[in-house]
Specification:
This protein has about 220 residues and is α/β, with parallel strands linked by helices. It has helices spanning about 5-15, 20-35, 40-55, 70-75, 90-105, 120-125, 140-150, 175-190, and strands spanning about 60-65, 85-90, 110-115, 130-135, 150-160, 195-200, 205-210. It is globular and about 45 Å long.
């Protein structure tokens, strides 16, 4: 399902800043070598993430789900001096490809890739995180959300990707694991008194979340 007409999506992408050479190489290699290359955020969303990081002046970014490194490299371009990204990847093949791409980029000194289950990694990180990008297994979103919310800085943002999931969240009869999990995640975030959130129709849906003023991140556990 197209959230935005293909013509409008094309126009928006073509009127987004051109890819730098290092990202163009990652895009082309991922497209050529990975059947699931659609998992890559691409030019439009990658630039949007870069600008979010820049606007926040985020000094510590957490990414859950590295894939081939495109989004981490995109966000690194928005970091201030001394800023860094910690990115989590559980798939060894993806981790290998992303390490190569990160090391070949201008931002290798800003990005730390940690291989292994993200929840274990997050448990060992003190934070606070100024920006968190969640783009991993969809049934894991509720747990990732709960794990990072107490470690979010007071002015920080969480961005959860694929929250329309090809439009499947709109169909209550779609009982696939990812659609069901994201439908529940979207409902819960929208009603969670601890946060303020907006679901954007950027590519496959991107939800931005911040702590509500005066709210406690641990007050209401997610189901």
């Amino acid at each position: 399902m197209d959230l935005v007409s293909p013509d409008a999506e094309w126009y928006a992408t073509e009127h987004t800043s051109a890819l730098p050479e290092h990202l163009r190489r990652v895009f082309e290699a991922t497209t050529a070598e990975h059947e699931d290359s659609g998992m890559m955020v691409g030019r439009l969303e990658g630039t949007f993430l870069e600008l979010l990081v820049f606007g926040l002046q985020a000094r510590l970014v957490l990414e859950i789900g590295t894939f081939t490194g495109y989004s981490a490299i995109s966000m690194a371009a928005g970091l201030p001096a001394g800023g860094r990204i910690i990115t989590c990847e559980v798939d060894p093949e993806h981790a290998e490809h992303s390490r190569h791409n990160i090391e070949s980029s201008p931002y290798a000194d800003r990005i730390e890739l940690i291989e292994g289950p993200a929840l274990e990694t997050i448990a060992g990180l003190p934070g606070p995180f100024d920006f968190v990008f969640i783009d991993a297994d969809k049934p894991g979103y509720p747990a990732y959300y709960e794990a990072v919310l107490p470690k979010l800085s007071p002015t920080g943002l969480i961005a959860a990707d694929n929250t329309f999931y090809h439009g499947t969240v709109l169909d209550p009869e779609n009982t696939g694991a990812s659609a069901t999990a994201l439908r529940a995640f979207n409902d819960r975030v929208a009603s969670d008194p601890r946060v303020r959130a907006v679901l954007l129709t950027v590519r496959d849906g991107l939800t931005l979340i911040r702590l509500a003023p005066g709210a406690s991140a641990s007050a209401v556990p997610i189901g």
